[in-house]
Design a protein that fits this description.
By secondary structure, the protein is of the alpha/beta class. The protein has five helices and five strands; from the N terminus they run βαβαβαβαβα. The chain has a single domain, classed as Response regulator (Rossmann fold, 3-Layer(aba) Sandwich).
């Protein structure tokens, strides 16, 4: 389904991160991360080529906007994954990006991501 796409997983809830990583691998993707902070994600982006990303909107250190900005400059498909409503600042800047609400089965998140990879928004 993911055709060896390199998927960045940015998630600060360990169990959710592990589930997403396993689902990416099960769908024939390559996992980058998972990472739990914006700083870790930005460091990884400075060293790796990313084909798509699943981003938790609110992380322990801050919101994920800086990571989304970098990914979008490269035209990388991004899927927000959030347990709460998207903050107004994020919605105004990235309102057109798709969101998969938590809790959602990891398989649903992967299907939604796969659709973005085939047909980016």
């Amino acid at each position: 389904m993911l055709n060896r796409c390199r998927v960045l997983v940015v998630e600060d809830e360990m169990m959710v991160a592990v589930d997403l990583a396993a689902a990416v691998m099960e769908a024939d993707g390559e996992v980058l991360g998972p990472v739990a902070t914006v700083d870790e994600a930005l460091l990884l982006l400075s060293r790796e080529v990313v084909g798509a990303a699943i981003l938790d909107v609110r992380l322990g250190d801050r919101d994920v906007a800086p990571v989304a900005r970098v990914l979008l400059t490269y035209g990388t498909p991004v899927l927000f994954h959030s347990a709460s409503e998207i903050p107004a600042e994020i919605a105004s800047e990235f309102g057109g990006l798709p969101t998969c609400p938590k809790p959602a089965p990891a398989s649903r998140v992967i299907r939604q991501l796969a659709a973005l990879i085939v047909s980016p928004a």
